[in-house]
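Posting for a labmate who doesn't have an account.
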Amino acid sequence: MGSKIDCQCSKCDCKTNFEIIDGEELLNLIQHGRLDGEKIDFLRTRVGSKICKHCFVGKHS
């Protein structure tokens, strides 16, 4: 979705490389019906987050 960065989690040092979620691109995906409700809700909470999905949900490495 956005540019790729390394995870910046302060609880672990996984340094997982992932794409950050851009609000504008997420809106575009929603408007074109490319995401289901569950994915939309999850991605909305992660817009601009600088930690990977695993750290975001508490599954630190």
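Reply:
Got it, the structure tokens are right above this. The longest strand covers residues 4-6.
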